[in-house]
């Protein structure tokens, strides 16, 4: 890629996430530094983003499960047209299976690569709970 | 064709709640859907048509189809007329079933006006609960825009198939060859592959010239009955096939960003029309970005998956040169992308081609079969695909 940038993404402020009654347990756990996913007791499939009804079998018996938040980069794109400096968006395929949309932080953005191992961490937002982001391990 | 006797209401469910502080609006929609399915004795995989109105959070049917994991939807309708919407939906569902566009239609309504402390949009309110699109809290925080969400698709396509920036650039080059003859085109200069790949990086791997233009403006279409059409003094452009499909991350399982909803909408349209991709004399292909074109060409069957890069770099999109003249008005990449929605200009240029009214320098000789295809929303998250096949009637 031309125009590579190696500054980390700290410049961009992350807005408060929209928290619903359905997603509130996720964000309450995030405040404690815990990363939760949902799994279905009926079909045993984990899914993302978390839902009250399983998107695979439609059972309403879905439960929260703490995840180590480890996985690999499925894809990414570093946005250069940003007044606060470049930042990277992408999907992580969690070891449990589901793909998660996220930002990659605290790393050399010019060295991001598909297949790279990453782990979750939480980043502060503007007045809301912290949001899950990922860094290479 | 009438709807009379062509459709039956086989499931009906009224949610027992009258006060729902503990459930989100998407959850209520899904619980209503589940109740109606149980009443009918069907499962959600039987649903191939989905109808919702303004009470369904998100972008038309996109958020709710993805939330519920409806994987077989091939007909969508988000007609909004307030409280009467669902009556119109029954009529529209019957039309769709009578026309063979779906066989099991789901119509949902749900909301929580008693919980009016919850804000309906997709933005966060520090310290307060919201009740908007179900994915909003998990996606809207990461600075996703069209550029970087389409960039993610291009990055993965390059990884899986070895597609290059130079190959993507050929799509812009072809569009610019056409735009030079369009007096109204926003960008009329012919560009080279080198100019595209050397233009400034917007969001990896998409450069400035991989992106469409931003333009004011608009368009309109008139669709008539055969009787009215024959009474008018214009060439007859007949709609012979149409297909549609939503695509989203669907719970994050087996995510594949290298294909679009065209993979499903295309075959429906081709089957209805009784033609094949190779029969097309001209194609309008949605071109918000160069990667959008590449993925849709593959998904529609103009070339094999992964071979789009070679297809476009062989010059196949240039009128008078290649196998599949595309976007002869210059497309969204050079001509026009009015109010960031390019679907209608795709149909308009296909109509010009079928009438023989495109610019002489780009008019396809004897253009009697054409396709227009569009993708709305984001290829990188959730989108709706639409394919229309048209024929010039002698």
Description:
The complex is a heterodimer of chains A (about 140) and B (about 400). Helices cover about 5% and strands about 35% of the residues of chain A. In chain A, a hairpin with a 7-residue loop joins strand 7 and strand 8 (about 130-135). The two termini of chain A are about 25 Å apart. A 5-stranded antiparallel sheet of chain A has the order 6-5-4-7-8, with no helix packed on it. A 3-stranded antiparallel sheet of chain A has the order 2-1-3. Chain A has one helix at about 25-30; strands spanning about 35-40, 45, 60-65, 70-80, 85-95, 100-105, 115-125, 130-135. Chain A is mostly beta strands. Chain A has 1 helix and 8 strands. With about 400 residues, chain B is of the alpha/beta class. In chain B, strand 1 (about 50), helix 2 (about 60-70) and strand 2 (about 75) form a beta-alpha-beta unit. In chain B, the strands form 3 sheets. Chain B has a 4-stranded mixed sheet, with helices on both faces. Chain B has helices at about 25-40, 60-70, 85-100, 135-140, 145-160, 165-180, 195, 225-230, 260-275, 290-300, 310-315, 330-335, 345-355; strands at about 50, 75, 105, 200-205, 205, 235-245, 280-285, 370-375, 385-394. Chain B is about 35% helix and about 15% strand. Chain B is globular, with a radius of gyration of 22 Å. Classes of the chains: A mainly beta (about 140), B alpha/beta (about 400). At the A-B interface, strand 4, strand 5 and strand 6 of A face helix 1, helix 2, helix 4, helix 5 and strand 4 of B.
């Amino acid at each position: 890629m031309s125009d590579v940038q190696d500054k980390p993404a700290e410049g961009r402020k992350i807005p408060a996430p929209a928290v619903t009654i359905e997603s509130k347990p996720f964000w309450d756990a995030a405040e404690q530094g815990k990363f939760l996913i949902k799994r279905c007791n009926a079909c045993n499939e984990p899914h993302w983003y978390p839902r009250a009804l399983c998107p695979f079998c439609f059972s309403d018996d879905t439960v929260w499960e703490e995840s180590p938040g480890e996985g690999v980069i499925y894809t990414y794109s570093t946005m250069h047209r940003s007044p606060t400096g470049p930042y990277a968006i992408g999907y992580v395929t969690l070891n449990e299976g589901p793909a998660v949309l996220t930002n990659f932080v605290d790393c050399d953005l010019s060295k991001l690569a598909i297949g790279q191992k990453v782990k979750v961490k939480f980043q502060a937002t503007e007045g809301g709970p912290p949001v899950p982001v990922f860094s290479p391990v | 064709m009438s709807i009379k006797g062509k459709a039956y209401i086989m499931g009906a469910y009224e949610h027992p709640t009258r006060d729902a502080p503990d459930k989100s609006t998407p959850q209520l929609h899904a619980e209503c859907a589940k109740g109606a399915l149980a009443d009918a004795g069907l499962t959600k995989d039987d649903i191939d048509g989905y109808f919702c109105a303004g009470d369904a959070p998100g972008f038309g049917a996109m958020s709710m189809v993805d939330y519920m994991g409806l994987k077989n939807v091939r007909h969508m309708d988000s007609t909004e007329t307030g409280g009467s919407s669902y009556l119109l939906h029954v009529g529209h569902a019957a039309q769709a079933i009578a026309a063979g566009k779906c066989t099991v239609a789901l119509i949902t309504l749900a909301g929580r006006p008693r919980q009016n402390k919850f804000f309906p949009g997709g933005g966060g309110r520090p310290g307060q609960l919201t009740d908007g699109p179900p994915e909003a809290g998990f996606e809207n925080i990461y600075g996703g825009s069209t550029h970087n969400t389409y960039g993610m698709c291009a990055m993965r396509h390059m990884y899986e198939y070895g597609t290059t920036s130079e190959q993507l650039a050929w799509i812009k080059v072809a569009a610019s060859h056409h735009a030079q003859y369009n007096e109204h085109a926003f960008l009329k200069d012919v560009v080279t592959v080198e100019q595209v790949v050397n233009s400034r990086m917007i969001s990896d791997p998409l450069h400035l010239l991989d992106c469409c233009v931003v333009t004011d403006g608009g368009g309109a279409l008139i669709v008539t009955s055969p009787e009215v059409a024959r009474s008018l003094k214009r060439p007859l452009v007949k709609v012979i096939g149409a297909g549609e499909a939503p695509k989203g991350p669907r719970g994050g399982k087996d995510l594949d960003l290298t294909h679009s909803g065209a993979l499903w909408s295309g075959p429906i349209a081709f089957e209805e029309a009784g033609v094949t991709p190779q029969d097309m004399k001209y194609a309008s292909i949605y071109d918000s970005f160069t990667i959008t074109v590449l993925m849709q060409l593959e998904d529609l069957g103009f070339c094999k998956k992964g071979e789009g890069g070679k297809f476009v770099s062989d010059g196949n999109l240039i009128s008078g040169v290649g196998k599949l003249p595309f976007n002869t008005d210059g497309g969204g990449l050079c001509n026009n992308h009015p109010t960031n929605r390019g679907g209608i200009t795709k149909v308009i240029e296909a109509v010009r081609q079928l009438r023989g009214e495109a610019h002489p320098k780009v008019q396809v000789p004897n253009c009697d079969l054409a396709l227009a295809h569009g993708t709305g929303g984001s290829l990188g998250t959730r989108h709706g695909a639409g394919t229309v096949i048209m024929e010039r009637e002698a």
